[in-house]
Predict the 3D structure of the following.
Amino acid sequence: MRFVWWLAAVVVISLVSIFLSERRALDPVQNFSLSITAPATTGLRDVARPVDDFFAGITDRDDLVRENRDLKQQLEELQQALAEQQDARQRVRELEEALGVKQGRPDDQLLAANVIAEDTSGLKRMIAIDRGLSDGLDEGMVVLSRSGSLVGTISRVYEDFAWVRRITDPDSTVNAQVVPAPTSTQAATGAPDVIVPATPTPGAAAPSSSTTPAPTPTPTPAAGADSPLRGVAEGDLRRGILLDLLPPDLTLVEGSLVSTSGLGGNYPRALLIGSVEAVDQRPQAPFTRATLKPAAEMSGLDTVLVLLNFRPARLSEQ
């Protein structure tokens, strides 16, 4: 019975409220209640906004992760394209330099090869190239830089790659020569001056020694003055290349160029090895020694040239 009365009261109150709302009789009450509850509602909304943003961020996280992954992939593709373009430009420059060496050596057969590895033990100065037996390579063949300077020789060769012993390796020995600069007279005229005395005419009176002095002969250069100064260039782990077995009384100028002498038949003549960097000349030493700076940049080799048409002596004997 009590439930019926409660239900009836609720129905009556609802009907009265609807009637008064239709008549706009409850507007003052609604305005008063909104005025009281508005500050509290705004405060609750401000407090709840970070929480709402947090949950909204969680729902958008998958989109952000996907977008970030796409951007990283695009950046990687652009960097890869840039690296390929820079490598292509570098290869063009290398091939242009190699072509210049080929034009300067028209009678030589040169094969370009890429450096693919380097000995990291610290006890050797070796590099590996991507050419081998299938390309016609053999042990002992001479290897040049892109500029035509001597790099070393092939020490071990396999089907598709080979190891090159550089001239800075301790086991490398090259017969070398230092060609001195021409003298000032030769540099100016190209040859020493020669004075030819006049031949007297038969029957003519001989010139008086008191009136005409006898011509003074011009001294000629000593034999061997312009001959190459030969020695042996040996690899050294600490100093690079040592030029040894030079004459003890030699006056060697720093900066002089050193090339292969061709003796022994293992290297062609006149391949540039390097330049004199320091001279070690001691009074009691049987020979003069010098430290050489290699002409080729040994630490930055990326492309080399193999001299195919030159057969070293140890190969030609086979």
User: Anything to note?
Assistant: The helical segments are 2-22, 27-104, 184-189, 313-316.
